[in-house]
Every structure is written in structure tokens, then in C-alpha cells.
Amino acid sequence: QVHLVESGGGSVQTGGSLRLSCAASGITYSMYCMGWFRQPPGSQRERVAALMIGGGGATYYADSVKGRFTISRDNAKNTLSLQMNSLRSDDTAMYYCAVDRLCTQLLNGRPSWWGRGTQVTVSS
């Protein structure tokens, strides 16, 4: 049974930073592609960042977060992180951690397993 639990969300002012974490159980972390998605109020879920397995662990970022967000993983601790800097009001959303053995599923927005999300609210 795969179980993902996000943490680290909260309220922050514009320009501030937050670090999200995702703790995973039931998987061998190093064998899964992993990513962060978000769903702003009234909008569809979108991929924020993804981290591949193999090939040096390539990363993918949404254009809107490039240069501000950094995805990383700690295989020894079974955790995935998302460092978010220079936060803007349009970063306000529920953030979800997701994993899949097939990286294409993650990149296509259809990963097999999801966490329940953590809320990020950015205000001026």
C-alpha cells in the first residue's frame, strides 16, 4: 500500500519561502518518478515539478515556477521536497505529492498515487 503524506504548507507573504515535504511509505523510493502538482482555487490541477529516476535524476518545472522552486529527494529518508522561494499570490493552491513507476504517467499528469495535499496561501 503506497502512502504519501505532504507537510510544510501554510500562509506566507508575497516574496516569502516555504519548503514542502512528502513522506512516502510502501515504495522503494529510488525506483519511482516523483512530482509535485497543485490545484489553485477554481482551477484544474497542474504539474509544478517532477523528478525522474535514472539518467542523473532529470527535473522538470512548470514555466511559472522555474528559477523559484526546486524539487529534490532524499532516498535514504524516503522524502521528496519542494523548496519554494519568491512566492507570489498565484502560487496559492493545494499542493500534492505524486509518484509512479512510469515517468510518462507522472509527466502526463496521471500518476498512480497521490497524497492528500497541503495548502499554500500567499498573500500581500
What Rg, in angstroms, do the CA atoms define? 13 Å
What fraction strand? over 45%
Query: What would the average pLDDT be, to the nearest integer?
Result: 94
> How would the global form be characterised?
globular
> Order of SSEs, N→C?
EEEEEEEEEHEE
Number of DSSP strands? 11
Uncertain segments are none
Compute the separation of the termini in Å.
Answer: 41 Å
Oligomerization? single chain
Largest sheet: 7 strands, mixed
- The amount of helix comes to under 10%
Total helical elements: 1
Question: Which structural category fits the helices and strands?
Answer: mainly beta
Notes on the protein architecture:
- It is a single chain.
- This protein is mainly beta.
- Helix content is 4%, strand content 49%.
- It has one helix and eleven strands; from the N terminus they run βββββββββαββ.
- The chain has one helix spanning 103-107; strands at 3-7, 10-13, 18-25, 33-39, 46-51, 59-61, 69-74, 79-84, 93-100, 113-114, 118-123.
- Strands 2, 4, 5, 6, 9, 10 and 11 form a seven-stranded mixed beta sheet that branches.
- The longest helix is centred in the C-terminal third of the chain and has 5 residues, at 103-107.
- The protein starts with a strand and ends with a strand.
